[in-house]
Amino acid sequence: MTSSITQNTIPLTQLDAVAKPIGQAVGMPGTAYTSEALFHFERDQLLGLTWSGLAFASEVAANGSLAPVDFMGLPLIVTRDLNGHINVFHNVCSHRGMTLVKEANPLARGIRCPYHSWYYDLSGSLKSTPSIGGVRINEVAGFSCENNGLKRVRCHVWMGIVFINLSGDAPDFTDFITPLENRWSQFSGAGFLDELHVPEQGAVIEIDVQCNWKLAVENYCESYHLPSVHPTLNTYSPLDQHYNIVAAENMSGQGSYVYNLSDIAGTELPRFPHWPEEKMSHAEYISLYPNVLLGLQPDHVFAMIVQPQAPGQSVEKLQLYYIGAQSLDESYGGCRSAVLKSWQQVFSEDIFAVEGMQNARRSSGFTGGVFSPVMDVSSHHFHQWLAQCYKTGTVRL
Length: 397
Fold this sequence. Notes:
Radius of gyration: 23 Å
Order of helices and strands: HHHEEEEEEEEEHEEHHHEEHEEEEHHH
Structural class: alpha+beta
Helix content: 25-40%
Shape: globular
CATH topology of the largest domain: Naphthalene 1,2-dioxygenase Alpha Subunit, Chain A, domain 1
Largest sheet: 8 strands, antiparallel
Distance between the termini: 10 Å
Strand content: 15-25%
């Protein structure tokens, strides 16, 4: 291991400095945000080893639908088969490695390779191999369709989020998500997922940001920037009423004691039936590492998947959920629009901050930065997690 930071390496001494107590620690160095080689290292040795957010199940809402998704340069396909099961496959034909799908299709029913017309069902099984044995001879001795289906990626759907484990050997998803479910059961009850409903329209925000995915997560972890970046949000969820959250090894964030958008915007949406009356103004915002950002309020929930596109480029895809089927009634349309508008404003306000940090990561004058021992607790926890992942993986590239 070299003793200085180069384009493709981070020395262990730097990672050890990140892992120090918050008052002595520095952050991850600029190369972690700008290096193409480290970007792919993170895909395979960080996001790929755990459960990462890939897409929303609503993107393949109908049985027989599919959508291609790029996972840090890796082409994947999400399908909902004819039985309603969500699957994720490598977007690669088993024959000659052709890319199979370029556009989403709500009426796909199956997948035909555009190169030689091999055909797969949406469960990944190879169903036909036209002329494999010669013209109009569709079978050949020694070849088995059963052994040549699409290559599956381990996946799990939770809260309408399609999570994947690229390596296939992460702990069970239940172990991954139980700490968060236990924490939030104090607000919404043990079965809060059953209460969530997504409108067909007006529930999704997509924002392109010119920053590394880690900056979007780090920014979400803390509330320190509220007064300067989110003056409107700070009026109904002020900084002095926020608290830090370190909920588990793989999650941190912030909470508010006085969230009251419903009063400010005049919304009167249905609320969780088991939400404690004494906590009716509480809200929590948790980064579920590596790349899923979650918000819980009494009358709605949101999830954002930060989709890394390149070292300095990400897509933030947010979906809103409301409480109970009645919340989707037309009579609540104005309330839902107010919620959508408020979060669109908040996340748009963050763009200049994360893009400004990304730009500065190219400077030799940035050596990781420091942390406020009071205000940056959750962000430092994320950096410690990153440093540990780097140390566990292979940082010599």
